[in-house]
Amino acid sequence: MTNNAESQVLTDGFHLVLDALKLNGIKTIYGLPGIPITDLTRMAQAEGLRVISFRHEQNAGNAAAIAGFLSGKPGVCLTVSAPGFLNGLVALANATTNCFPMILISGSSEREIVDLQQGDYEEMDQLAIAKPLCKAAFRVLNAEDIGVGIARAIRAAVSGRPGGVYLDLPAKLFSQIMDAEAGKKSLIQVVDPSPRQIPAPEAVQRALDLLKGARKPLILLGKGAAYAQADEEIRTLVEKTGIPYLPMSMAKGILPDTHAQSASAARSFVLPEADVVLLIGARLNWLLSHGKGKTWGGKSHKDWGGQKFIQIDIAATEMDSNVRIDAPLVGDVGSCVSALLAGMGSQWAQPPAEWLNAVAERKNKNVAKMAETLAKDPSPMNFHSALNVVRDIIKANPDAMLVNEGANALDFTRSIVDMYKPRKRLDVGTWGVMGIGMGFAVAAAVETGQPVIAVEGDSAFGFSGMEVETICRYNLPVCVVILNNNGVYRGTDKNLGGGADVAPTVFVKDSRYEKLMEAFGGVGVYAATTAELRKGMEEAIRLRRPTLINAVIDESAGTESGRITSLNPAAALKK
To answer: What distance separates the 2 farthest-apart alpha carbons in the chain?
Structure first.
């Protein structure tokens, strides 16, 4: 803008925020417009940024978070103040827990009114509320500090262990005016926000010595390994050592699940039997029974199985968080794996044949058993028969993105559907939080341009189902497959009190979810057989049209809480 009286070119807070984002390579904003950021979303479009507008801020936040995981740059979510900000907090906290780089930017009420609690529009001390839930939180009060605020947010989101960052922008900031040239100079293009962290040579040698002495070694890949995008280095390490490997769910595809060294089908055998375990971007949290208990060969949940652990993690504080880490390798995954490879030299002894043969025997036995189960085609469908179709579709379309959430829908998909390429499987991750489905699906389509298959439990879909309108509005190549068994876990529960109300876990019988997609111009498919499911999915991939398939399965299919029954005390007592 120009001040005619002084012939001075001016800029304002709106443009400085957008200029700072563009300067740092941010091309897409996920959010929901409203006071006080509606004009910011309009101006963002005018400035060439893509604005993907959602129906609920939590879904926009989930989209930004997974965009960060896929790109390695912080995904940006933009919300209104107070209620909108609060809606985005679940996604912000989930991003931090899962180590997804994300920035939640929220408009807010004026500080002088908030601090005196005088009752401003949507008054809330948002910065104070956000701080405990994210890596860092900043507030910008002056236009000349916008560049610094956004630079700090970017660096905090991606440096070290990635995570969520909150940036508070009071409404008054946007209308502040300053000299355009001075404003341009105040912006910061962040240089090397996530520098390599090289492991100490003695730490590398300690790890190699431990691996050399192993009789039953195992490599365990976590989603941190997928985020690192060190795919070739990891593949080389696995193949050079000859060690069996086990991928966590979002690490599937770093090497194809069909790789000869994959031990996924022998998970319950290799974890308690391994004597040395190399963790690459994986944490010994609840998903790995904290490195203790019967999963690892212990006699009770407190017992350590006696394994020796080598752990690669960028955060030194992660070491010894549950059990002793004998060889901590602190650094980024790429640098640590490269250092291990360099230290191995040209020759490296393969693991003992006795170990490899034992793993292969158990794996082949379980693969054959699964193949026998998948060959069945019951009516109505069950999880196995429906997911056998998804398995085939992914095999034929390995570039497609797979989004997955639910209880049984999550567990069965993880064990049945093979992945062939890295960062193609996106799911609930460390928290196990439901509701990521449609947000992840939208961002996966936007960020990669590839078709997306979202396999949803009927319960999980309910958390974000309205975003099918968003999928249709942007004409995204998303195929949603709802495994519909009429309820949470299953649709057969009864009201224990004998009243007229259905059980808390039971939904409306025979719900026609596909009609929701049709309402917004997408394709709805009712699939009662595997043939109908296959046809619907093949058409969705071929036409790249928004599609929702209501895959009706046996309502008695499924178990309480999937594979985490032990976390539900009453259900555990029934075992």
So the answer is: 86
Burial class (CB in 10 A: 0-12, 13-18, 19+), 569: exposed
CB 390 within 8 Å of CB 373? no
Give the Cα-Cα-Cα angle 461, 466, 472 (nearest 5 degrees).
110
Burial of 79 from C-beta contacts in 10 A (0-12 / 13-18 / 19+): buried
Q: Which domains does the chain have, with CATH numbers?
A: 2-186 (3.40.50.970), 201-361 (3.40.50.1220), 376-574 (3.40.50.970)
Q: What angle do CA 538, 544, 550 make, to 5 degrees?
A: 55
Alpha carbons within 13 A on the beta-carbon side of 347: 1
Question: Is pTM, for the whole model, over 0.90?
Answer: yes
Tokens of 521: 């111009």
> How many CB atoms sit inside 10 A of residue 457's CB?
29
**pLDDT tens per residue across all 575 residues of the chain:** 656 555 789 999 999 999 999 999 999 999 999 988 999 999 999 999 999 999 999 999 999 999 999 999 999 999 999 999 999 999 999 999 999 999 999 999 888 888 889 888 888 999 999 999 999 999 999 999 999 999 999 999 999 999 999 999 999 999 999 999 999 999 999 999 999 999 999 999 999 999 999 999 999 999 999 999 999 999 999 999 999 999 999 999 999 999 999 999 999 999 999 999 999 999 999 999 999 999 999 888 788 889 999 999 999 999 999 999 999 999 999 999 999 999 998 889 999 999 999 999 999 999 999 999 999 999 999 999 999 999 999 999 999 999 999 999 999 999 999 999 999 999 999 998 999 999 999 999 999 999 999 999 999 999 999 999 999 999 999 999 999 999 999 999 999 999 999 999 999 999 999 999 999 999 999 999 999 999 999 999 999 999 999 999 999 998 886 556 556 655 554 54
